[in-house]
Amino acid sequence: MTTPHLPATETRRGTGRLLLLGAAGLGLVLVVGCWYLLKGDPDISLSELGRSLFGGHTHDNGAYLVREVRLPRLLLALIAGAALGLAGTVLQYTLKNPIADPGILGMSQAAAFVVALSVLFPGLMPRLVLPVVCILAGLATSAILVVLAKSIRDPVRLLLVGVVIASLGATLTSATIVLLPIDRAVGLGQFFGFTAGTVASASWSRIGLILPWLVVAVPAALLSGRALNLLQLGDDMAIGRGMRVTRARALLLTCACLLVAPVVAVVGPISFVALLSPHVAKVVLRTSNAHLVLPASAVVGAVVMLLADTAGRLLFFPTEIPAGIWTIVVVGPLAVVLARRSVGRTSMEAS
Amino acid sequence: MSRRALRRMATVAVVILAGTMLAACSSSDDSSGKSGGSDTSGSVSFPLTITDASGQKLTLDKKPTKIGCYWTGCDEILASLGVVPYASPNVADTTRGSLVYPDGEPTKDISKLGGEDNAESWAKAGVDLIVTRGPASPEVKAFEQVAPVLYLYAPGLDDSANLSGLDAYKKNVEIMGQVTGKVSEATAAVKGFDTFMTKLASAAPADAATTTVAPIFQTDDGSYQLIAPTSPFCVALEEYKIGKCVQSSARNASTWVINGEAFLALDPNWIPYMGGEDNSQLDWKRRSDAIWNKLTAVKEKHVYNSTSRIFCCSLRTLAPAIQEYAYHVWGPTSGVADPGKINDYAYTDDYSPLASN
Lengths: 351, 357
Fold this sequence. Notes:
The complex is a heterodimer.
Chain A: H1 8-38, H2 46-54, H3 61-94, H4 102-105, H5 107-120, H6 130-151, H7 155-178, H8 188-195, H9 204-222, H10 225-232, H11 235-240, H12 245-267, H13 273-285, H14 290-315, H15 323-350
Helix pairs in contact in A: 1-3, 1-14, 2-3, 3-9, 3-12, 3-13, 3-14, 5-6, 5-7, 5-8, 5-12, 6-7, 6-12, 9-12, 10-14, 13-14, 13-15, 14-15
Chain B: H1 3-25, E1 48-51, E2 57-60, E3 67-69, H2 72-81, E4 87-88, E5 108-109, H3 119-125, E6 129-133, H4 138-141, E7 149-152, H5 165-180, H6 183-202, E8 212-213, E9 216-217, E10 224-225, H7 232-239, E11 244-245, E12 257-258, H8 260-266, E13 271-274, H9 296-299, E14 303-306, H10 315-330
Parallel strand pairs in B: 3-6, 4-5, 6-7, 8-11, 9-13, 13-14
Antiparallel strand pairs in B: 1-2, 10-12
């Protein structure tokens, strides 16, 4: 379904660029992903990689590391990045705010606080329950935003509320650390690693923890294009076209929460992927059609996380630098360059 | 002036002089605020200038009588000197094992005065010296408004100091011996540790020196957190030829995390699995991640749950940590006594780690 007022040719061009982006993203994932699986301690050859992945039971160290350590980590980075990219688009369109981000709105901080409690007080909650509690915490922040969105029409003010909620979550986490009994201090190192955002502890079981939620949330997000496009027209226009705005907003924020909270529960709060992936996608596609931006931001997010974790794992191997530190290094300059090109083009068109 | 008057004046002057000398020679209070005898074996005189772990030159005009211990290492060192800190968060039911003070409890419980992180708590306690560990931080620097702050060495926790390993721990004991006037006790404490280590090493098997060890912290996220190779535990193992900590440049200094693949490549012979004093959640057998299951030490059950504090904070806690290592790695037949849990460890004057016959 095309967005109202957009010529079909523009939509076709956008679709074409989306396909190009998808192909480029896939190519990058294959090349970088392959290198990712080959390098480490020990390095392995392409043939060994092939045998490890497709050759049945090989029990040597390299094959084991590929199957049980590197491959789940690679997949977790891609999945987390795609989920965050989608979440960023959903949030920015739902709240009509270009800097809406799970971190700014408090979703990440609420989930991170839950994880802090579980790390610093081992045994507090079983690992299976952790994503659920994180989701509930994220939903709580979403609920506050939904309720307030009815009365606060100014997106900047709504964002301010999100910032307050985010600060509250961060403060609760800090308070937990400060008040931590001394015999729990050994957990602090693990927690600080978590807060940087890392996929280093990936495993098949951890992927299994978040997949059930993403299996629901990702299709829901990809199919929400129409609703997101309508919301861009403004609440009155959306209502005029038959949309129940508050309900739609609640569902969309819930979808974003289901994308973000399980990811935070497993890899920690990763910055900038959700914030910047939609912008990169829009600049590349030269459209803000949500039908196209959604899958594009998922591709961008996945590629960014892959590049960030590759840098974190391999650039200074064997020293491990969390992927969350590299995301801004990877996506920040890209966003600036693309944004400047976009501004330049706009200025030329205006003149 | 008549001779009688001169004689009277001379007598008065002698009396005043004698009284002044007696007052100068009388002992000052010990750090718990109680009067005690003078330290006749000490060669410390005040004002005393100490260069501490942060590099600052701290001058103490007179011997502190109300020492506040912000860091557990301070409590432990004072306990080994036979001194009770005046103020500490480690009182009542937390004083056990390494923190058993010979002469009662600290006078002031900082946790009840507002907590040790609050400068006002130390002000309320009325301390005249606060002892902590390096590096200096803004929060601790705020305590300087209350009393002078002395930074001790924390090898393995603070990499900024110019002293590490056993030398750092021994220097801490020397510093506290000077501050408290217990110089001979400090010397005895260091010598006692050396004696302990020598006795322990005498029970070591022939191949002990080649045993590779990797103390890691308990985690449940599959990460591997190693202690620093400069930590006194690792230095002591190597110095006394009873083991060798694995070393890797992979260690992230800020989080102590090591890349899992790199740890697998190191594949240590033994793994002390550290969970702190309350190890109710700790059991290395419950850990299961892809790297862990491949480690030779895990397959051969060369892992033990460490109840000691390998990574901190003084010679006093290092001794049982090393005895625990020797007991598990060499086995009971080596003659090394089971030290038990750190909180139940019985410190003896002769520092004997060997089982009695």
